[in-house]
Amino acid sequence: MARAVRQFICQVCGASQPRWQGKCDACNSWNSLVEEGLTAPVSGAASGPASRRKGRTFRLEGLQGDSAEPPRLPTGMAELDRVTGGGFVRGSVVLIGGDPGIGKSTLLIQACAQLARGGHRVVYISGEEAVAQVRLRAERLKLSDAPVELASETNVEDIITTLGQGPAPRLVVIDSIQTMWTGAIDSAPGTVTQVRGSAQNLIRFAKTSGAALILVGHVTKDGQIAGPRVVEHMVDAVASFEGESGHHFRILRAVKNRFGPTDEIGVFEMTGLGLSQVSNPSALFLAGRDVNTPGTAVLAAMEGTRPLLVEVQALVAPSALGTPRRAVVGFDSSRLSMIIAVLEAHGGVRLGQHDVYLNVAGGMKITEPAADLAAAAALVSSLSGCALPPDTAYFGEIGLSGSIRPVVQATTRAREAAKLGFKRVVSPPLAQEKTTDAKSAGERGDRPADRDALRADTVSHISDLVAQIAAAGPGKPRAASPRENAREGHGARRAEPSRSRQPADWE
């Protein structure tokens, strides 16, 4: 016999409190406690026969042994298979989150249609839309002929019972987990307790039946998947579907994956017939860029094993405010502050009285340190008014001492730049990857002519980058580097562009 126990559950972190209070003690969130009903054994039930049952023994195995590759279910969509590690694993659970209207349902209905046309049983259960609405989307995407089984249901027990009839499905899509509810929990759908309980029952069904399960999750205002964090620990993979409403491309990014890489991305383009795969994302991100405008630099970035070329735009303007503005889109604001400080202290570039705006074109979000050099080049170019060469790509990490530090997969970045017609890269020395260059090039099938046509200009200090950009300006001689000044007996201060050589804004 069980009775209901009233608890107050935090809708942010899932912590429980015996009584209501305005602030959660676990995550310091305000007004996040909601009263929910939990089932608990009555007094005296702990002394029953079930509680006195001894545990059973199980077999312990060593680290060595035959471990077969888990069977995968490729969807036929190369970008989606790239993120999942080659396809969905039998019995795996994938949680996909994204902003409303970003295209999650469109992506999943396309994947379901691909698998259903291949002869697999695929079930799509929507808790937010009626069957007629899903059919209208399929007609718009020209997918009505695919034998996908549809249903509009929110009760977890009814869903599991229905899926158990007939052959086990190969893929099950639940859209979304926040709308599901189970009768074992006395709480409203969407609460932390219901989400956790519903997800646990669905995951148990996937593990026992061998069906691949996809759970669609809502996101909060800051982009995190709504609901308790424990759901992300329960599933096998977590993917984030990103994109901007003003741009036509979408990015599927793997956040967690027990059966594949955790830093891969898949790039899609939103069209009238749904999401189309983008085989060459670099050409998409660089389309329509301004080649002769100061303040733009091309970054050779890495997203997992995929190299990407994106444009970094900077605007430096005199500030009329006491505290200059620092606005960032698609870049880490703390890292921008560090780059500005290094340019001030070791590059002789004065940005303290200027507003600084930095943007990664196309809506791409860059978080890796290798973007430091491209951001610094764009800032210096905008301040000096000197346009950077249009056939040059930049990558490298900037240290607090002003040194340019090497980054991983440097030759892969340079190779991608050469494929797109770039003739020059500005980066740290590439000597550390010289031994593996020939082997990796042979595996990828690159042409030697592409690598030979690319010229690498190495920089070891931030002042070397400033000197290169200053020398490219019309009528501006090359500025001396700090190392040259040190050899000539100058002070410890880094080289600073002279007033006679540089525009007034540099000072």
Overall geometry: globular
- Give helix % range: 25-40%
Backbone structural class: alpha/beta
- Summed up, the domain count is 3
Largest sheet: 9 strands, mixed
The assigned CATH architecture of the largest domain is 2-Layer Sandwich
Q: What is the first-to-last residue Cα distance?
A: 80 Å
What is the count of helical runs? 14
Widest beta sheet: strand line-up: 8-7-9-10-6-11-12-13-14
Low-confidence stretches: 41-47, 431-451, 475-507
Mean pLDDT: 82
CATH class of the largest domain: Alpha Beta
Task: Report the CATH topology name of the largest domain.
Answer: Ribosomal Protein S5, domain 2
Number of strands: 23
Description of the structure:
With about 500 residues, the chain is an alpha/beta fold. The protein has 3 domains: about 1-45, no CATH class; about 70-280, Rossmann fold, CATH 3.40.50.300; about 285-430 and about 445-505, Ribosomal Protein S5, domain 2 (2-Layer Sandwich), CATH 3.30.230. Helices cover about 25% and strands about 25% of the residues. It has helices spanning about 80-85, 105-115, 130-140, 155-165, 190-210, 230-235, 280-285, 335-345, 370-385, 410-420, 435-445, 450, 460-470, 480-485, and strands at about 1-10, 15, 35-40, 70-75, 90, 95-100, 120-125, 150, 170-175, 210-215, 235-245, 250-255, 265-270, 275, 295-305, 305-320, 325-330, 355-360, 390-395, 395-400, 405, 425, 455-460. The strands form 5 sheets. The protein has a 9-stranded mixed beta sheet with strand order 8-7-9-10-6-11-12-13-14, with helices on both faces. Helix 5 (about 190-210) links the parallel strand 9 and strand 10 (about 210-215). The longest helix is centred in the middle third of the chain and has 18 residues, at about 190-210. The protein is globular and about 75 Å long. The relative contact order is 0.08. Residues about 40-45, about 430-450 and about 475-505 have low confidence and may be disordered.
